Amino acid sequence: MTHLNTVLLIDDNPGDNFYHRIIIEETGLVGRIEEQLTGPRALAFLRKTELVIDLILLDINLPGMNGFEFLEAYEEFARDWRCQPALVVLTTSLNPADEDKVARFPQVCMYANKPLDADGFRAIVKRCVKQG
Amino acid sequence: MVPDDEWSGTTETGSIPLRGDDTATTTVFLDAHGDVLHYAPVDERLIGLRPSDIGAPLAQLADRIPQAVLAQVRASITGPRGALPVSIAGTGRDGIALYLTVEPAVLAAGRDRGAVLTVRRSVDDARVPIDNLMARLSLALNAANIGIWDYDFPNDHLDWDERMFALYDVDPAHFGHRFEDWRRCVHVDDLPDVIAQWQSAIATGTRFAPTFRVFHRDGSTPLISTAAVFIRDAAGYAVRAVGANFDVTEVAHTEWEHAFLFDHANDLQIVAGMDGVFRRVSKAWTTRLGWSEEDLLSRPFIDLVHPDDRAATLAAMDRLAWGESVSDFENRYRHVDGSYRRLWWNASPLPGYDMLVASARDVTESHALREALRHSEAQFRAIFDTAPIGIAVVDDQGRPALSNAALQAILGIDGETLAKTPFPEFTHPEDVDKDVEQYTALLAGEIHYYTMEKRYIRPDGEVVWGSLTVTLFDDDPPRALGMVVDITERRRAEAALLESEANYRSIAERLPGVVFKFVREADGETVRFDYASVNELSARVIGFTAEALMRDVHSYLGAIVPEDFARYSEVLLRSAETMSAYEIEFRIRRPTDGAIVWLNARATPHRRANGAIVWTGIALDVTERKQATEALEGALADLKTTNAALEHFAYAASHDLREPLNTVSNYASLLTIRYAEQLDDHGHIMVNYMFDATERMKALVRALLEYSRVGSSELVIEPVDVGALVGEVLADLDHRLRETRAEIDAELEVTVHADRIQLGRVFANLIGNALKYRRAGVAPVVSISVEDLHTHWRFAVQDNGIGIDQKYAERVFEIFRQLHHRDEYDGIGLGLALCKRIVQRHGGEIWFESQIGQGSTFFFTIRKPASARTEP
Question: Which residues of chain A from 60 to 89 reach within 8 Å of chain B, CB to CB?
Fold first, then answer.
């Protein structure tokens, strides 16, 4: 299975981030895990980081700038990137309207319900991250 | 024969040399054509005219007068300017000098012009010498056709001259010259009277002048008149008689005819002297006036003339005495019974002017008729002139030859113009054909009259409606009497009525329901629909047609749902008692399918003269509205139930959800206390996350409960002194105010109607937020104000904090929505959602205006109760 350099978790709930970190570490597929609690902070991080980020797990329900607003800003922001990270939207809402909204963003590879388990994460990697 | 050229003519009347007793004169009256109208009969033999010549041209005179002279006479009469006076002198065919004068004359009745021809013959100028008396006598006797007889009594010898033989048609050769021979010649019927007169004359010397018939051999019986002179001896005995005989047949016939005509004419005829006494009267006088002939002839007729008419009658007599004819003269004569008859006279003087002939007609009745006619004409005229309706006499060309002022006013045309204008010219084009058709039929006698309502067009273009009646007035030439009543106003009113009826009808036909007149008769029992209008759609909706309602009111009343019927009856009864309008909503069960239809009926009653009460009104189908209302009421009820359930759920959540949460949180606490040493760092982190999550969960449940209670609990609206309320809120926040060194500026001297506790929470949340979202290092400045928006109060809470991006204008008021991560500003996102809910329940709105980094102003409104609203 492909090895990922860095995964970025964007979620306002530190407990969820801690949980996902444990699950992802256990799969052994990821070299480094970064966490950001809000959209603006995530954008700021992306702007200045030198890490190679292969996958972003984005929680839709964020305070202030929500997941969709982050996606809009990110679309603008990441247009010129040579290497695009895979984007996966996480949600607990199970709201069908959110699924439709997500479909409007081509960068979004898929969405998944959280919390993720190890198999869920492997499926994401298998589906969204380029082999090699 | 005398040559024509021996005659000479002159117009100078003065040249006529004949005058005095030695002339004989004939007067002939001629009409304008020169035909003989009349002549003086005594002189007829002089010029040879006979009664048969009357009405014929003057040609008969040609026996005595040369044709050329007659032509001259005729020319003078028939000239283009009428008769001219002419005098002609010359010699007749018998050699006797004649003088003719022609004078223009107005003939008796005044009808015609003509001429009077006078022919005078000179006796002295006779060109034939008369040698002796006998020769002259013979000439005279010959001329007069008179036979002379001479009877010698002693010798019984009768001597006849030759004219006697001609008169008696006796051959002289066979005449015996005895008395007996004459006697045999006399008609047997006349003989006794003749002999008696003869004997009486011999015996007593009375006049012997009998008239008798004689037998001629051709069977005719000419009438002979005789006169005799008796010669007596000394003893007085007649010894000789000498007499003359002459044929009076023609005279008798003419006189008889005259007498017959005179006596049998309907008119009253007279011959009278200029002295004012009747000489002869026709029988009609006796029958008409009752006077005997003696009465009439024995006194001046002026005695019988009505005193008022005497002067005029005498004046007419004067005119006659001057030779004028009098015509068309009327006066009144007294009847023997004292009444007066009105006579209409035509009179002419006889030649010589001392006598007159006159004919009178009794016009008493016709005068009365005429008077009556004149009276009725005057009445007609008065009606005609003053009638308020237009009247016209219309000629056969359709022209109102005579029109009254009213008609002229109606048509706007003066009488003179109207008389020249056929009626189609001032008739509306659409009405012309009908009028002309009927007028033609009227003139043709096919109908006696016609009436129509028609339009006239006045010269100013205005249309006038008239009700026209036309009757035939006269036959020849046909004329009609037309009467016109101006009905423009009536037609206008009718048109307006029709229009308003049409409007009403079209409205009624479109109404989704029933327009009705419902009658309760005077007995208080009988009810019926007097009128109902139901359009097709409504008939389907209510299941009754207008006809069905009118026909059978009881099936309609029976269709009213029983539980509504009692109410319906009561409402109607009360309306009848108070005579006030009613409105009611009730259900009927549609007879067609049994479906329930809601009707809203409203009607106004009025009482008829007979005591019946009539409700005029409408019943509208309100089923849909009713159903919608019911649905709404159902939904409201549902909502209440739901709210109750939600509140119950909220309580349940607060208790039942908290229990397991408490369990989790309790055990998490125990884990950190009892197993602290066994747990590694990760273990501690995990347990802390569990603990935090349960705490947060408890907070969320609490918030949810609070939010649901704000939405579902009953509002307790009361007057709230906002200044005092905010003061309490600030007191509660005192610790944080001092901590943040906040500056509060509140100007709230108002009392509003609100739920005091809930309004307090709004202020607490907004002020709390203003303190919470302050800028780092900047002491909060919060000003709270209020503005009267008439229907609402608007409050504003202004701060100098961090501000809010306008794109979150909606989102900030959503529950559990936060703009900041809780590691920056703690909270669960309930405050503004709660505020919004409270404000909405108070009939208001909440919003904000903000500049990032400079501050925000939150506005919210609270609706005033209707009584507290002010005018702008």
Answer: 63-64
Whether the per-residue pLDDT at B552 is higher than 60: the answer is yes
Could you tell me whether strands A4-10 and A53-59 are parallel, antiparallel, or unpaired per DSSP bridges?
Answer: parallel
pLDDT tens per residue, range B84-131? 667 776 666 666 666 677 776 665 444 556 777 777 665 544 433 444
Of B682, B692, B821, the CB nearest to A12: B821
Contacts of residue B829 in chain A, CB cutoff 8 Å?
63
Could you identify the residue written with the tokens 């109404």? B511
Cβ atoms of B767 and B733 within 8 Å: the answer is: yes
- CB burial of residue B855 (10 Å; 0-12, 13-18, 19+): buried
Q: Which of B29, B49, B11, B22 is nearest to B121 (CA)?
A: B22
Which residues in chain A have Cβ-Cβ distances shorter than 8 Å to B822? Answer: 12, 63
Partner-chain contact A14 B689, CB within 8 Å: yes
Contact check, Cβ <8 Å, A12/B822: yes
CA A84/CA A71 separation, integer angstroms: 13
Rounded Cα distance between B859 and B849, Å, is: 8
Of A15, A19, A63, the CB nearest to B821: A63
Q: Spell out a b/e string for B548-581, using b for 16 or more CB atoms within 10 Å of the CB, else e.
A: bbbeebeebeebbeeebbeebeebbeebbeeeee
User: How far is C-alpha B67 from the geometric centre of its chain's CA atoms?
Assistant: 72
Residues B428, B433, B434, B438: what is their CA dihedral angle, to the nearest 10 degrees?
120
Phi, psi dihedral angles at A27 (to 5 degrees):
-75, -20
Higher pLDDT, A46 or B141: A46
Measure B535 CA to nearest chain A CA, in Å. 50
CA distances, B788 to each of B720, B847, B864, B871 (Å): 15, 17, 10, 11
Shortest distance, CA A95 to any CA of chain B (angstroms): 16
Identify which of B473, B458, B468, B382 has the alpha carbon closest to the alpha carbon of residue B418: B458
Amino acid at B719: P
- Please write the tens of the pLDDT for every residue from B355-376: 888 888 888 877 777 777 777 7
Burial class of residue B224 (count of CB atoms within 10 Å of its CB; 0-12, 13-18, 19+): buried
Instruction: Give the chain A residue nearest B828 (alpha carbons).
Output: A63
Please judge whether B821 and A18 are an interchain contact, meaning their C-beta atoms are less than 8 angstroms apart: no
The answer to whether B822 contacts A14, with C-beta atoms less than 8 Å apart, is no
Q: Please determine, for residue B460, whether its predicted confidence score (pLDDT) is greater than 80.
A: yes
Which among B692, B808, B821 has the least Cβ separation from residue A37? B821
What are the Cα distances from residue B541, in Å, to B355, B413, B536, B621, B624?
111, 60, 9, 8, 11
Question: SS3 of B37, please?
Answer: strand
Pairing, β B23-31 against β B113-122: antiparallel
Burial of B272 (0-12, 13-18, 19+ CB in 10 A): buried
Q: Burial level of A2, CB count in 10 A (0-12/13-18/19+)? A: exposed
**What are the chain B neighbours of A22 within 8 Å (beta carbons)?**
682
Which residue in the block uniquely carries the two structure tokens 């309502």?
B453
Tell me whether residues B822 and A18 touch, CB distance under 8 A: no
Q: Binning pLDDT at 50, 70 and 90, where does residue B17 land?
A: very low
Q: Chain A interface, mutation test: which of B681, B684, B689, most A Cβ atoms within 10 Å? A: B689
Task: Classify residue B15 as exposed, middle or buried by CB count within 10 Å of its CB (0-12, 13-18, 19+).
Answer: exposed
Interface test with A, best of B680, B804, B806, B821 (most A CBs within 10 A): B821
CA distance B627 to chain A (A): 35
Tracing tokens 């029958």 back to the chain, one arrives at B287
Determine the Cα–Cα distance for residues B357 and B359; give it in Å rounded to an integer: 7
Q: What is the rounded average pLDDT for all residues in chain B?
A: 82
